[in-house]
Amino acid sequence: MLEIEKKASRQEINQAALEKLVSDFVVFAESLLRVGKITQTQYCELVDRKLKFLQGCRQLN
To answer: Domain of life, per the record (predicted)?
Structure first.
């Protein structure tokens, strides 16, 4: 039973790490948008791709 709990714990950590990466990416994209390095459309496309990536990772778990 302890081994199952360890695996579940690792998955939660991995999921949290993925969510943090996506969150950091979105903050970075927002910064690029604010300073005019990307357009609103590019920002939306980037964020959509990252959210789809995160959803795909969730389905694997």
So the answer is: Bacteria
Contacts of residue 26, defined as CB under 8 A and 6 or more positions apart, other chains included, come to: 47, 50
Amino acid at 58: R
Exposure on the CB side of residue 50, measured as CA atoms within 13 A:
18
Structure tokens, 4: 């199952």
The predicted-structure confidence for 23-61, as pLDDT tens digits, reads as follows 899 999 999 999 999 999 999 999 999 888 878 776 765
Domain extents in the chain: 22-61
Indicate the pTM of the whole model. Answer: 0.69
CB-CB contact of 61 with 11 (8 Å):
yes
